[in-house]
Amino acid sequence: MTEKFAIVVDGTSCQTPEVQREFDLRLLPLHVDIGKETFTANVDLTPAQFYEKIAAPGVLTGTSQPSMGECRDVYDSVVKDGIDKLLVLTIATELSGTYSVAATTAQAMPHAEIEVIDTRSLAGGISLIATAAGRLRRSGGSFQDAVALARRMAGTIDLLAVADTLEYLKRSGRVSGAQALFGSMLQVKPILQVKDGVVHPIDRVRTREKAVSRLMEMVSERVPEGARIHACTLHTNDAERARALAEWLQARYHCVEHWTTEAGAVIGARAGPGVLGISWYREDARP
Question: What fold characterizes domain 6-30+65-153?
Answer without folding.
Answer: Rossmann fold (3.40.50)
